Structures are given as structure tokens and as C-alpha cells.
């Protein structure tokens, strides 16, 4: 397996890859080298047929405290524009397989945006979400403004982006930013995220990929287009062995044995 400097990768379950951001001295600030490693690890997992879902986490203190401010501070417009600074962050949103963010501690700036790029967010009671870029004289650049507005609505997104206020796990749950807050205890949120990933990985990978694709379409298409897209993908699944197997297993009162074909 590949050796990384800023992340750790493991297989807590045969079907699940766990990626842990590991730059503790900088609270997992998302430097360019860290992000290259993260993209590489995620792309490898996405291509691996034995993997059904990925979990992304940080430390107890910080999921990630944002893009690396020390790396950014002296950059000029010409550098960031010409070199498309941080644009490869968006690669995460192109992956086929689900990614679950397990968030403890700070998820700030790019860290909050990174969590929002994942498909499901589980939070520990210690999680704190925020977009403090306004305090640095800038604004979110990794999709925070758009994804927050779509997720929590205009007034809350404006408050977060314009004041930089940090939102607690409980508030994030109430606002629909995270699917749920798990119990206290060290490592609890990661265990729960791995359990969700394992559950997803037990399904037909084709159906899971299709499910992710159609839910994401809801953020880009009109309702009429989205409904048509969903119906077409649904129809298409009747061409798969997994549809035949899943429905036969139900009728025969047995567990389905999906072959991802
Ligand atoms: N970048 C670089 N270093 C950081 C960052 C960061 N974002 N966050 C923390 N660190 C470093 C600190 O500098 C410190 O290093 P050192 O020990 O060498 O001084 C170390 O981590 C520990 O941090 P603190 O001593 O500050 O720890 P505290 O517990 O006192 O405070 C906080 C924790 C509140 C999280 C504090 O560290 C903080 O405010 N960090 C910055 C948060 C922030 O502003 N984040 C937004 C960054 S901008 C951004 O993310 C833009 C994203 C654009 C994406 C574009 C994609 C296309």
C-alpha cells in the first residue's frame, strides 16, 4: 500500500476504506500536499472493486481547521488564478462511491467545505462547523457558500459566511447539515461511520452508485428534469443482474447475494 505523509489509510472492514487526516500539529490544515494525498487515496479506493464506501475523518480535536493559511498568505492573484489554486479539491465530488465524513472537533473553512463535499456527515457532540474566512478578509472558496445555502437556507448561510460564527453539532443537526449526532466517547463517530459504510457496501454497488447519482442531481436539475433522470436510471437498473437477484431473493425469502453486475 502507498505510504503517505499527511493522511493514514486503513481497512476497518474488508469493504470499507478509512482515511484519517493526519497533520495534528496544524489541526489538519488542508495544505496542497495533503490534498494531493487525499485525492490519490480516494481515487484508489473508488477504483478498487472490493471497496464499497469510504469514511473520511480527522482527529478528536479537528476534522480540519481549513485550508492552510500559512501556505496561502503571500500568494498573488496571478499565481492562484493561473495555477487554479485549490481547484483539484472538487475531484472528491466526482467519485462514484459514497464518502461518509465522521466529524469531531473543528470543521472550519475548507474543513467545513470538505465535509459538505462528502455524501453523508455524522458528527460527534464536539463537532464545530464554521466558515471563518470573513475574518481573514476573504470568503469561502471551496463551495461553502453554495452548498450551505442549498443545505441550510439563505439566512443561516449568510450568518455563517458574514459573521464567521461557529455552529455546534446540535445546531448543525437541527439545520440539516449533518444527518445525525452520535453518542459521546472517543472514536464513537468513526465507529458509527464505518458501520454505515459497511451497511452501504453490503448492497449492490451499481444501485448505490445510481442512488448517489440521482440524489446529487437534485442539486443541479429542475424538479421535472430530476424526476425524469431518476426514472430513466431506475428503468436502467432492470438491465442488471443485481435487480434480478434482489427481487428474486425477496420473493424466495432469502438474503440477496449481489454480484455488482
Ligand atoms: N492553516 C494553517 N495553520 C493552522 C490552521 C490553518 N487553517 N489552523 C490552525 N493552524 C495551526 C496554528 O497556526 C497552530 O500552529 P503553531 O502551533 O505552529 O502556531 C496550530 O495549528 C494549532 O492551532 P492554534 O494554536 O490556533 O489552536 P487553538 O486550539 O488555539 O485554536 C482554532 C483552534 C480556533 C481552530 C484556530 O487554530 C483557528 O482559528 N484556525 C484557523 C481557522 C480558519 O480560519 N480556517 C479557515 C481557513 S481559510 C479556508 O479554509 C479557505 C478555503 C478555501 C478552499 C478553496 C478550495 C477551492
From TrEMBL:
<comment type="similarity">
    <text>Belongs to the enoyl-CoA hydratase/isomerase family.</text>
</comment>
<protein>
    <recommendedName>
        <fullName>Probable enoyl-CoA hydratase, mitochondrial</fullName>
        <ecNumber>4.2.1.17</ecNumber>
    </recommendedName>
</protein>
<keyword id="KW-0456">Lyase</keyword>
<dbReference type="InterPro" id="IPR018376">
    <property type="entry name" value="Enoyl-CoA_hyd/isom_CS"/>
</dbReference>
<dbReference type="GO" id="GO:0004300">
    <property type="term" value="F:enoyl-CoA hydratase activity"/>
</dbReference>
<dbReference type="GO" id="GO:0005739">
    <property type="term" value="C:mitochondrion"/>
</dbReference>
<dbReference type="Pfam" id="PF00378">
    <property type="entry name" value="ECH_1"/>
</dbReference>
<keyword id="KW-0443">Lipid metabolism</keyword>
<dbReference type="InterPro" id="IPR014748">
    <property type="entry name" value="Enoyl-CoA_hydra_C"/>
</dbReference>
<dbReference type="InterPro" id="IPR001753">
    <property type="entry name" value="Enoyl-CoA_hydra/iso"/>
</dbReference>
<keyword id="KW-0276">Fatty acid metabolism</keyword>
<dbReference type="InterPro" id="IPR029045">
    <property type="entry name" value="ClpP/crotonase-like_dom_sf"/>
</dbReference>
<dbReference type="GO" id="GO:0006635">
    <property type="term" value="P:fatty acid beta-oxidation"/>
</dbReference>
Amino acid at each position: 500500500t502507498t505510504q503517505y505523509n499527511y493522511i493514514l489509510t486503513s481497512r476497518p472492514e474488508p469493504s470499507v476504506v478509512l482515511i484519517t487526516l493526519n497533520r495534528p500539529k496544524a489541526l489538519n490544515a488542508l495544505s496542497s500536499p495533503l490534498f494531493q494525498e487525499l485525492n490519490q487515496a480516494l481515487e484508489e479506493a473508488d477504483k478498487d472493486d472490493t471497496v464499497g464506501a469510504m469514511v473520511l475523518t480527522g482527529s478528536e480535536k479537528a476534522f480540519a481547521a481549513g485550508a492552510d493559511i500559512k501556505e496561502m498568505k503571500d500568494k498573488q492573484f496571478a499565481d492562484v488564478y493561473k495555477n487554479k489554486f485549490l481547484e483539484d479539491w472538487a475531484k472528491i465530488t466526482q467519485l462514484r462511491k459514497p464518502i461518509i465524513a465522521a466529524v469531531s472537533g473543528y470543521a472550519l473553512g475548507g474543513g467545513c467545505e470538505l465535509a459538505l463535499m462528502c455524501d453523508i456527515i455524522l458528527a460527534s457532540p464536539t463537532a464545530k462547523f464554521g466558515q471563518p474566512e470573513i475574518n481573514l478578509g476573504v470568503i469561502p472558496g471551496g463551495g461553502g457558500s453554495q452548498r450551505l445555502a442549498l443545505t441550510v437556507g439563505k439566512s443561516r448561510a449568510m450568518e455563517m459566511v458574514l459573521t464567521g460564527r461557529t455552529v455546534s453539532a446540535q445546531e448543525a443537526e437541527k439545520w440539516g447539515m449533518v444527518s445525525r449526532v452520535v453518542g459521546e466517547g472517543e472514536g464513537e463517530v468513526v465507529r458509527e461511520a464505518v458501520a454505515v459504510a459497511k451497511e452501504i457496501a453490503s448492497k449492490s454497488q451499481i444501485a448505490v452508485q445510481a442512488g448517489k447519482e440521482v440524489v446529487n442531481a437534485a442539486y443541479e436539475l429542475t424538479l421535472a428534469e430530476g424526476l425524469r433522470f431518476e426514472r430513466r436510471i431506475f428503468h436502467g437498473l432492470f438491465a442488471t443482474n443485481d435487480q434480478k437477484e434482489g427481487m428474486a431473493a425477496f420473493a424466495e425469502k432469502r438474503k440477496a447475494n449481489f454480484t455488482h453486475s
